[in-house]
């Protein structure tokens, strides 16, 4: 039974000098304030698991324990008060508490101190991905500016590894660069410790060759070989203030409050101070009888004993953990029984009826009785993540408060398991130092369990791969098909048959030699269409194997591509269909479709007779590959069969129709008046739509038709087919679902298209793309909220092209995926660069194409870019057009869900222009609506336009969605939007799209913002 208030602590780690001090300080504060604790180790990345939500009254969030979006969920969704430590939440607009040390002022004092020692070449070492260290960097810049000192690029060392190892790496870099600095402010004490260790090892001296000041003032800093000058953060006061703040918020809701705690500079030898020349250890030797000496000596002896105990504990943990022998809580009972009351393991087994993880407790070990007391636990009470951990056990003393540590770890398929340990304040107070070292080593436990899960998953995957390989071997041996893989990068060809074959420097590396000479051009045509236009590779050809007889075969293949869209591999099969042809289908299929060879002969005969004019119509299904991917090939086959039936019913006696492979059909339509062609094409489209609707499938099917005329467009079959293809390409480029007759200008269009394709490939290879930025601001205050990145292409001649000039072609030739990945990466890189320069993080909106969302590489590419650049996903918004969502809803829904899981916001672009707008809001997990600029433009001049915008805003508000109005061009529009409650605006009234150099004038300067808030806080405190 829960007697006291319970505080939940979300912390990235439990160990290390800093986090050990943090956990210890929180536990001391919790005991003084008589509250229980649940401490959850998050691992510091992409953690959004609702553990403990039913157990916790309020959350204390340490540093970067969780992403911003989950931080907001704690307050807005789970309705829990929140207080953060060393985490800046002002940009999140939360009603939470925030306790920070005055990092900026502390850093400034450290730089002033180094300057007093005569240093002018002073550097900064830290991570720009952590709020505390970014403020220290701002303090460094501010101090250097006030002192009139130059800051060069090689004075700044940005690293996410601020451990001992990271310090050694930085020392190596400074040595390699021949000491560009003579002094440095380093953001952690452990990093300084590593630097000193490596510098001394290489024969350099501290502070003579380089003076150093660190943070944290740990015991390690005090007893380093060169005692480290350090900034003491007064963590005890910080954590007491944070816990007090949170307890008050649990009792009574409060508005946002910022607490800023001053730091203290502790000088020792590493900075060059004289009073640091005599270390504490030396004082012990020279002043054995002094009271101060006795205190220092006692502290030093305790430090040595603590290290000895830590080595013993490490040894025991290594026995059980690092040897992977830890399977049950009882395996480490001897280690934990003096410090903990109980331990439990809970694992996920599928999902409950609400779609939430279903948990099953596997062990509840009582360290007092040394028994697994699982049978005494009501397992249903703990079968969800919010209901865990199993705190307040029957073993708890009523006069004490409990402390529970939770170590979440993932198993395969993202299943969660929880390792929990419960103790009490009185249990640990006599051996607090040893207890905290065991808590520190829980980090090893969590990492080990992750490692074990990874090993198990790898073993499972290896087994599955072996089974798949064996199965594939059997299929390959039994299959009548010829399977092939053409590797263009390595110039290799694999075949599953022992055929006499030699790689040649041809388009398909020599596979053409199996094809009838008359069909080689047809093979190459399909390959180029697949390569350039991303069309499905599916065609019918005559094949000859080992100098045997030619036979009819269907060749189908798929390809893999590199980052600039070039095909790396072509993988497919060659299937013998000669038996099918001999079985009543050699010359003509029973449904009235003739084969390509027969069709060719019939056209030759019509041309030879010269009796009538005719149209050659090339027809294919729009987005047929997507339909196959979404609904399965059996549905695609049904559609082809239905389409064949519709087409054969539409043609007249004397006309001819053939299926050229895949979804491509060719019709010879004889006419007397040219107007008959347009009527015929329209009838085909209408008949197909009626029949597909009759299939009762939720499929938006359309066809595109390209038409050439005999004899005006050509008098040879090949020429007519080529021009009909050109007309078809033009239809596709213009939006599909239409028909067009060939016109001479289309050749120029095709040539221009090929030229643009070449330009795009070269732009990807040579980094010729560029971004411009358009600010998005709060409608009321005009303060910047975010920016939208917009793509431009700079040609070799220096001409800047806007997206409408090249994006449609990029989509048609399969280059939109690598170009889209370039945009995401470039936006993330630039965003991180602004943060390093001291600007506050803002939302960066990126347009995402529907073809990107369809790419199987999209999500993995996004995750890789985030990992590579260090960008916080909460700072990104992906804008997806409403049309894309509606046209591809089945694919897009799942992808959007995964995007949201990553932590990226999703906006619906051009909202309101579709008939299905409301269904989008209902079915998709979106956060932001962007009102289309056409509505914004009309709202001033048209009362209906005003009412539409008002309705959109009201609907969005009722669904807790944020609203961005695009295309705001004057103050009247802005005033109306603000009056209606629109959150943000974007448009030429604020700014046109501008360069990265110009956009910085809009970016919030963190140094200015922090000073304003800090000064206001001081004024409030004084009053």
Plain-language structure description:
The chain has 1023 residues and is an alpha/beta fold. The chain folds into 5 domains: 206 residues, no CATH class; 150 residues, Response regulator (Rossmann fold, 3-Layer(aba) Sandwich), CATH 3.40.50.2300; 94 residues, 2-Layer Sandwich (Beta-Lactamase), CATH 3.30.450.20; 157 residues, 2-Layer Sandwich (Alpha-Beta Plaits), CATH 3.30.70.270; 249 residues, TIM Barrel (Alpha-Beta Barrel). Helices cover 43% and strands 21% of the residues. The protein contains 33 helices and 36 strands. The strands form 5 sheets. It has an 11-stranded mixed sheet, sandwiched between helices. The longest helix is centred in the middle third of the chain and has 47 residues. The two termini are 44 Å apart. GO terms for molecular function: DNA binding. Keywords: DNA-binding, Transcription, Transcription regulation. This is EAL domain-containing protein. Pfam families: EAL, GGDEF, PAS_3, Peripla_BP_3.
């Amino acid at each position: 039974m829960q007697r006291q208030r319970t505080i939940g602590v979300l912390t990235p780690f439990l160990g290390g000098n800093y986090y050990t001090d943090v956990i210890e300080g929180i536990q001391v504060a919790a005991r003084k304030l008589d509250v229980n604790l649940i401490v959850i180790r998050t691992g510091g990345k992409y953690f959004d698991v609702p553990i403990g939500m039913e157990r916790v009254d309020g959350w204390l969030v340490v540093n970067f324990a969780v992403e911003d979006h989950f931080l907001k969920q704690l307050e807005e969704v789970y309705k829990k008060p929140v207080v953060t430590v060393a985490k800046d939440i002002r940009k999140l607009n939360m009603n939470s508490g925030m306790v920070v040390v005055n990092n900026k002022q502390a850093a400034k004092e450290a730089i002033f101190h180094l300057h007093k020692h005569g240093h002018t070449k002073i550097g900064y070492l830290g991570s720009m991905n952590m709020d505390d260290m970014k403020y220290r960097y701002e303090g460094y810049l501010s101090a250097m500016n006030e002192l009139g000192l130059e800051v060069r690029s090689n004075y700044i060392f940005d690293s996410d590894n601020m451990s001992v190892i990271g310090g050694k790496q930085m020392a190596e870099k400074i040595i390699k660069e021949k000491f560009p600095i003579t002094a440095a402010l380093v953001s952690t004490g452990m990093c300084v410790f590593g630097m000193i260790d490596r510098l001394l090892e290489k024969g350099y001296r501290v502070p003579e060759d380089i003076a150093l000041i660190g943070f944290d003032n740990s015991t390690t800093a005090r007893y380093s070989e060169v005692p480290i000058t350090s900034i003491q953060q007064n963590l005890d006061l910080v954590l007491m203030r944070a816990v007090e703040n949170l307890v008050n918020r649990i009792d009574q809701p409060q508005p946002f409050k910022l607490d800023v705690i001053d730091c203290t500079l502790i000088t020792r030898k590493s900075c060059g101070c004289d009073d640091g020349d005599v270390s504490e250890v030396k004082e012990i030797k020279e002043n054995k009888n002094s009271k101060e000496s006795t205190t220092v000596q006692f502290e030093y002896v305790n430090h040595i004993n603590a290290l000895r105990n830590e080595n013993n504990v490490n040894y025991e943990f290594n026995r059980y953990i690092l040897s992977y022998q830890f399977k049950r809580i009882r395996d480490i009972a001897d280690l934990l029984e003096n410090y903990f009351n109980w331990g439990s393991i809970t694992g996920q087994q599928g999902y409950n009826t609400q779609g939430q993880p279903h948990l099953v407790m596997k062990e509840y070990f009582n360290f007092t009785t040394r028994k697994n007391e699982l049978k005494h636990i009501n397992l249903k009470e703990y079968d969800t993540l919010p209901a865990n951990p199993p705190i307040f056990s029957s073993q708890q003393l009523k006069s004490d408060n409990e402390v529970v540590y939770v170590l979440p770890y993932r198993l395969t398929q993202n299943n969660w398991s929880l390792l929990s340990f419960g103790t009490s304040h009185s249990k640990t107070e006599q051996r607090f130092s040893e207890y905290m070292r065991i808590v520190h080593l829980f980090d090893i436990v969590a990492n080990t369990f992750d490692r074990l899960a990874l090993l198990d998953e790898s073993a499972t995957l290896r087994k599955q791969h072996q089974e798949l390989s064996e199965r594939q071997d059997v299929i390959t041996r039994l299959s009548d098909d010829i399977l092939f893989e053409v590797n263009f990068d390595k110039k290799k060809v694999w075949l599953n048959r022992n055929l006499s074959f030699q790689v040649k420097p041809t388009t398909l590396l020599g596979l053409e030699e199996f094809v009838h000479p008359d069909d080689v051009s047809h093979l190459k045509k399909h390959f180029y269409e697949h390569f350039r236009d991303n069309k499905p590779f599916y065609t019918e050809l005559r094949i000859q194997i080992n100098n045997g007889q030619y036979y009819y075969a269907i060749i189908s293949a798929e390809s893999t591509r590199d980052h600039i869209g070039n095909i790396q591999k072509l993988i497919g099969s060659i299937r013998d269909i000669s038996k099918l042809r001999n079985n009543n289908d050699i010359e003509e299929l029973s449904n009235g479709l003739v084969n390509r060879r027969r069709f060719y002969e019939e056209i030759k005969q019509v041309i030879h007779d010269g009796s009538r004019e005719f149209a050659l119509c090339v027809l294919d299904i729009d987005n047929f590959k997507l339909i196959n991917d979404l609904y399965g090939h059996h549905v695609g086959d049904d559609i082809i069969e239905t389409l064949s039936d519709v087409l054969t019913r539409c043609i007249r006696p004397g006309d001819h129709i053939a299926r050229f492979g895949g979804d491509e059909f060719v019709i010879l339509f004889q006419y007397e008046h040219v107007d008959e062609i347009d009527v015929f094409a329209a009838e085909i489209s209408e008949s197909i739509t009626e029949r597909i609707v009759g299939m009762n499938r939720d499929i938006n099917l359309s066809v595109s038709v390209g038409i050439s005329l005999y004899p005006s467009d050509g008098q040879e079959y090949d020429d007519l087919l080529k021009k009909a293809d050109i007309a078809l390409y033009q239809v596709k480029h213009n939006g599909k679902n239409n028909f067009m007759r060939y016109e001479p200008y289309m050749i120029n269009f095709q040539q221009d298209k090929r030229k643009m394709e070449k330009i795009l490939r070269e732009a990807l290879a040579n980094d010729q793309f560029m971004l411009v930025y358009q600010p998005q601001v709060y409608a009321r205050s005009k303060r910047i909220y975010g920016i939208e990145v917009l793509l431009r292409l700079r040609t070799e001649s220096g001409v800047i092209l806007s997206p409408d000039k090249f994006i449609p072609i990029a989509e048609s030739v399969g280059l939109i995926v690598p170009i889209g990945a370039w945009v995401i990466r470039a936006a993330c890189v630039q965003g991180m660069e602004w943060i390093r320069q001291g600007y506050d993080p803002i939302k960066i909106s990126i347009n995402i194409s529907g073809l990107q969302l369809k790419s199987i590489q999209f999500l993995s590419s996004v995750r890789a870019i985030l990992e590579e650049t260090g960008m916080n996903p909460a700072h990104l918004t992906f804008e997806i057009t409403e049309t894309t969502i509606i046209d591809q809803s089945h694919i897009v829904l799942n992808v959007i869900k995964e995007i949201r899981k990553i932590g990226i916001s999703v906006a619906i672009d051009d909202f309101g222009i579709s008939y299905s707008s409301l269904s989008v809001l209902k079915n998709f997990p979106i956060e932001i609506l962007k009102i289309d600029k056409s509505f914004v433009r009309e709202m001033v001049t048209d009362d209906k336009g005003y009412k539409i915008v008002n309705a959109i805003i009201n609907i969005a508000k009722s669904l807790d969605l944020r609203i961005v109005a695009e295309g705001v061009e004057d103050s009247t529009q802005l005033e109306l939007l603000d009056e209606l409650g629109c959150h943000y605006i974007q448009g030429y009234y604020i700014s046109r799209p501008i360069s990265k150099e110009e956009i910085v004038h809009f970016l919030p300067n963190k140094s200015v913002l922090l000073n304003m808030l800090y000064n206001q806080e001081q004024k409030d405190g004084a009053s």
